[in-house]
Amino acid sequence: MARGPKKHLKRLAAPSSWMLDKLSGTYAPRPSPGPHKLRESLPLTVFLRNRLKYALTGREVTAIVMQRLIKVDGKVRTDTTYPAGLMDVISIEKSGEFFRLLYDVKGRFTIHRITPEEASYKLLKVRKVAFGARGVPHIVTHDGRTIRYPDPLIQVNDTVKFDLEQNKITDFVKFDTGNLAMVTGGRNMGRVGVITHREKHAGGFDIVHVKDSLDRTFATRLSNVFVIGEGTKPWISLPKGKGIKLSISEERDARRKRATVEQ
CA–CA separation, 14 vs 9, rounded Å? Predict the structure, then answer.
């Protein structure tokens, strides 16, 4: 058997959220080990070349990142396959552009442009609350950060607002019914709605029921729910569609309406 870490990724095995075509090559850029898992991340190469079309080839992507033009969460990243993930802020100061990586309602990473003010913070889901050496309390977040001495009221599954310039928690929102959440996995990936109910299953997966702004309800596992705001007001701007999933016929009607307006 193979020894050591895998260094390649076949194109067909790449996550569908990257939206790569089947036929232009055998391989896809394999994300480096980093703060996000392989299947929950987007390498910078895919973002710059396939999404923004700022480069035509992988070599051009290397030329861009080696000029130290690309920052992820306020830090320059020169690795072309650096794994940027959910809620990460990608900034290109030379062109004055800022992006936040979010899912659309079809579960694909979308190009979501944000203002410089919004690019100064990100939301983090709390994965773990623990005490470290010498009894120092800390939390571990969904993007691999360890933050020491958090507010003692912060629990697992809560969301913290993290200032990227000062590296500090500025606010937090509890995982609670009545708060706005985004679904980050499963069939309902990318949908946004208000948490209505949490079913507890001892020894199984807790199920969370969510209701979107069109009063449609859906359910998903607790691990897939990311709180993004208090009440119905989101703390971040949402991508096109605002996390509302339309049926196929509703999408068709919206398309036809747009086409008639353009004519």
Answer: 7
Average per-residue pLDDT for the chain:
93
Q: What is the dihedral of CA 199, 201, 206, 209, to 10 degrees?
A: -20
Of the candidates 226, 144, 214, 155, the one whose C-alpha atom is nearest the C-alpha of residue 185 is 226
Cβ-contact 83, 73 below 8 angstroms: no
pLDDT band, residue 243 (cuts 50/70/90): confident
- What is the Cα–Cα distance from 32 to 75, expressed in whole angstroms? 16
Q: Is the pTM of this model over 0.70?
A: yes
CA 177 from centre of chain: 22
Beta-carbon contacts of 175 under 8 Å, excluding residues fewer than 6 positions away, are 155, 157, 158, 159, 195, 225, 227
Rounded distance, CA 72 to CA 48, Å? Answer: 13
Other beta carbons within 10 angstroms of residue 158's beta carbon come to 21
Q: What is the pLDDT of residues 182-191, one digit of tens each?
A: 999 999 999 9
Which residues neighbour 210 within 8 Å (Cβ) at sequence distance 6 or greater? 181, 183, 188, 191, 193, 194, 195, 196, 217, 218, 219, 220, 225
> What span, in angstroms and rounded, lies between the C-alpha atoms of 243 and 202?
30
Q: Which amino acid is at 11?
A: R
